[in-house]
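Final report, closing paragraph on structural work. Over the funding period we assembled a curated collection of sequence-structure pairs, and we close with a single example.
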Amino acid sequence: MSAESPLNLTHLEERKDVLMKDLKTVVGDADSLLKEVGNATAEEFSAARASIEAYVGDARSKLHEARMAVSGKASCAANAAHLYVNANPWKSLGAAAAAGVLLGMLCRRR
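Its predicted structure, as stored:
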């Protein structure tokens, strides 16, 4: 499982970069279309609106895909943590106790 994590994280970062690039493109295109529409007729306005709606629809679908990918990764991580805690309850309890003591010491210092 740990052998797959770096690859999946790299793939997720690549998808995030592509998504950010696409969103910047959508915003830039929408801005330029709105500037062009300032002196446009009703037909040109309708065409520009349809184009913007298409861009926004595409961006929404890509955001949904990214959200689903991140949700899937979070679900896998939560499942792995659950399995580890069930397999190693005393180690998990020791780690939680150590974290509690450390947090208590840090809070006491203030």
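The mean pLDDT is 80. Helices lie at 5-37, 42-87, 89-109. We thank the funder for supporting this effort.
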